[in-house]
Amino acid sequence: MQAQRLPLAPLAAAILLACTGLTQASSHREAPFITTAPKVDGTDFYMFRSYEEGRKDYVTLIANYQPLQAAYGGPNYFAMDPNALYEIHIDNNGDAKEDLSFQFRFNNSLAAGGKGVALPIGGKNIPIPLVQKGQVSGLADGNLNLAETFGVSLVRGDRRSGVAMPLTNALTGSASFDKPVDNIGTKTIPDYPGYADQHIYSVNMPGCDKPAKLFVGQRKDAFAVNLGVIFDLVHAPVDVITNPALIGAAQNTIDDANVTTLAIEVHKSCLTNGDDVIGGWTTASLRQSRVLNATPPSGHQASEKVGGSWVQVSRLGMPLVNEVVIGLPDKDKFNASSPKGDGQFIDYVTHPSLPALLEIALGLPNTAPTNFPRFDLVTTFLTGIKGVNQPKNVVGSEMLRLNTAIEPVRFDQQNRLGLVGNILAGGTDNAGYPNGRRPKDDVVDISLVAVMGGLCMANGNNNALGFGADCNPSKVPLGATAFKLHDAVDQAVVPLLSKFPYLFTPIAGSK
After folding, report:
1. What is the model's pTM?
2. Among candidates 33, 492, 80, which has minimal Cα distance to 261?
């Protein structure tokens, strides 16, 4: 398929719609409960046609967890939780229910049969306090004191009642995979990129005749945002965030942070089902009950016993939704919910509080759009954009949606503003946000434009984009200034890879 030029109207919609997520920092510590359980805190979800040479017919799914990891965060670093269930879901018929679920489970075990590495000290063998006893360079390295392994199962249909079938190593047939230890530092792991690459697996996926790729491990956080300034009531001059020439004026405050990435690349034919458009989201769940042992035995993470059914505690599809759209009383409820039940949150979309909050924060009264209910945002949140990424038989629900028929664009030619930037440039890059999401897409800037009325400016006085006659320039007090909004942090300069797993090498704990 050749690179396409989509019609201007739906494209403009696509780009400006893009963003119900609406401002500055994908999904880091976004709800009250999840702040108490950082190991299951989902930070970002990406879904895009692969742009690595020779892989254009594949779709890459990336779910990031454990936000704001300090590279020096030893001695335990950031192993995943063996008592949690991490999932990536695909809806391939538009009914707001998962049709495919990739389920990730982890196991962390001490060396020496669970006793840990010990050194002879004065005639006694004493266990060491670190996760490594020397330099690390290979798979299941003998110098690791803690072995981190994981398995991935594919469930078709309902994620709890469907049959789970394991993904297996295409070379060995094993259903267990080694996870690389985090980037402790250059003395322990002199060549971390080479070490991590050994943990990229070719895997057999049940029901798919084309091998997939799999990687789980620490990566540099690919999201760019001026986090402290944003949450301090947008502590930035208005003349900066409305001046396109100052797009890189502010510091990316999470530039020194790592995350843990779950990445899988699957042939698009194994994800679709009669419709080129798929929806995706990621969730994490914990067991319903947890008992702490006041006198835990020796071992690794031996202080708790868990039981009962899985309880979902984290959910992420479109970026920023629970962070700055859902109200504080309902953040935990949203994290526990499924797309099929999103009607309960409709008021947050039709009558969003964020524009009014920005009025207060920026000292700019009467600048919020006045087209209530906000059907422009409803389209973005719940249905996708007709002619771009709306399923044939869509049921309104919040998730990231991707048209797998639209050709990918190689990394160095991608427009950081996704569809909106492509329209402005008159180009052929229709593969970016909100048509899925690539790591380079600047979702913050696109979202600011949308929430402050950019959709209605583009809709004009003749309902050109189909958002309703009430969504027109007269309902946008900012006028054309809405198109100039940005957060003063440039997503395009974040280091990334041009091949799977696409996110950059994590920052080392020491250099």
Report:
1. 0.93
2. 80
Sign of CA dihedral 411, 433, 245, 9: positive
Closest-CA residue to 64 (of 314, 324, 326): 314
Q: In the structure encoding, which two tokens stand for residue 349, read together?
A: 């979309």
Using an 8 Å Cβ cutoff, are 60 and 50 in contact? Answer: yes
> Worst-scoring range by mean pLDDT, 46-50, 184-188, 381-385, 476-480?
381-385
437: closest CA among 428, 450, 424, 446?
Answer: 446
- Give the span between the Cα atoms of 34 and 240, in whole angstroms: 33
First CA to last CA distance, the chain: 45
- CA-CA-CA-CA torsion sign (356, 362, 365, 368): negative
**C-alpha torsion sign, points 295, 299, 305, 311:** positive
Residue 7: how many CB atoms within 10 A of its CB?
Answer: 11
Report d(CA 268, CA 48) in Å as an integer.
Answer: 10
Summarize pLDDT for 200-227 with one digit per residue, the tens.
Answer: 999 999 999 999 999 999 999 999 988 7
Number of residues that make up the chain = 511
CA distances from 8 to 298, 423, 427, 464 (A): 64, 7, 11, 10
Quick one: which of 495, 435, 432, 480 has its CA closest to 244? 480
3-state DSSP assignment of residue 17: helix
Give CA angle at 336 (330, 340), nearest 5°: 95
Residues 231, 222, 109: CA angle, nearest 5 degrees: 105
- Determine how many CB atoms are found less than 10 A away from the CB of residue 25: 28
Helix (H, G, I), strand (E, B) or coil at 356: helix
Let me know: does 305 contact 319? Beta carbons within 8 Å.
no
Give residue 107's region: left, alpha or beta (phi > 0; psi -120 to 50).
beta
Per residue in 437-494, pLDDT (tens digit) is: 999 999 988 888 889 998 899 889 998 877 889 999 999 999 999 988 988 999 999 9
Confidence of residue 428 (pLDDT cuts 50, 70, 90): confident
DSSP E strand boundaries for 293-396: 304-316
Q: Establish whether the linkage from the previous residue to 75 is cis, with ω within 30° of 0.
A: yes
Q: Which residue's structure tokens are 């209530």?
A: 372
Amino acid (one-letter) located at 330: D
Contact present, 439 and 501 (Cβ < 8 Å): no
Please give the distance of CA 471 from its chain centroid, rounded to a whole number: 30
Give the best-scoring range by mean pLDDT among 14-23, 259-268, 490-499. Answer: 259-268
Instruction: Express each pLDDT in 141-161 by its tens digit.
Output: 999 999 999 999 999 999 999
Q: What is the pLDDT of residue 273?
A: 97
| Distance of alpha carbon 449 from alpha carbon 440, whole angstroms | 18
CB 310 within 8 A of CB 160: yes
